[in-house]
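Researcher: Here's a chain I'd like modeled. Treat it as a single chain, no partners, no ligands.
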Amino acid sequence: MSDTYDYKTGEALQQPIPSGQLFAAALQLAAARGYSFAAWRLPAQQQPSLLIDLSGSAAKVHPSLEELPTGFLFAPYQADLTALDAREKPGCLFLRADLLWEGQQGELRPAEGLPPQRRAQAESFLEELEQEEAPAASAYPLAPCRAGTTPKTQYIHLVEQSVAAIRRGDFQKNVCARTKEVALPAGFSLSSFFLHLSAAYPNAFVSLVAIPGVGTWIGATPEILISVDRHQKFCTVALAGTQRRQAGMRPVDAVWRQKEIEEQAMVSRYIINCLKKVRIREFEEIGPRTIAAANLLHLRTDFTIDLKEVHYPNLPTVMLELLHPTSAVCGLPKEPAAAFLETHEQLDRSFFAGFLGPVHLQQETHLFVNLRCMQLLERTALLYAGAGITADSDAEREWQETEHKCQTLLDVLYEASR
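Model: Modeled as a single isolated chain. Structure tokens:
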């Protein structure tokens, strides 16, 4: 629970999130004006950040992290990070920070060095924002197409097919995803839901991305893909294995089945093999340890590298290309697992299991795997969830795991709309 906001009562604790009404108004005004925007709250931080791209779209880019300006990356599951031309396959979308609200400052400001026309747009937006007495009714970009709820029978069959393929030796593990469509509650507010998620899950990366023609996504993910801090410390994690957290249970007291232990070990080995491919031997490995993510527990191992010591300045981009999609959202070996899912899953994952996050903000880059997320539609929300499948998987258990993962968002969705 955040020290600044109580999501159960909707009341402020100590101090509200900086200029909370202004923050909400900025989201609504950006949506009303047809601008792309991203709001997020990093793990263990109290304050949110917001950037607005005044172009009304998002550029397709190759994610060369060392070359990108300050902004926000949003990539689908099927993004091809090896294609030199980002237009060839589903590419990474990049939002420029024309207007930026950084959590510690609590003020929306134009970026430095904006072209005259863009600066005029920014100033006009800020003037209009100051005149807003209250946020407008919730509005957000809608996706041009969508899927519905995955039938339970279809998902059970997919898991059974996966187990059979694993036992044949086709691959060691895969991750079966599904969707769940629910009605948005009366009184739903985009900004309120985002702030409630931030308060409810302080250790998650909470995000809201809205792009005209692409849609609106919101979520609270526990999984770091890659992170580079201002001290040039690179980090990635192996996160796998899931169990429901019982009331009062401490993570340190969790007992894991062999299936989850092996599943997490596969993800760790995959990361180590990626590091070996680029001849990185100097890294710190901590874990596995049990961590709490909302009402769930996971096994996590952290891998940290000092970029100043390894003299590998473009390691973040190289590792991004090697890791995505991670074995925690696709499978092992990656190629046969991905091919199986493309044939049998019958689901367009879209931005689920892709990645997203701020780039070069305060000299740091933080990209997360887009899990525990939903796509907002006109009157409904489409939730996405997946479960790791091994030779020992039970189809009914895996279905229940995806139900538990969806519930982490639904609990807050209904609470925020009361």
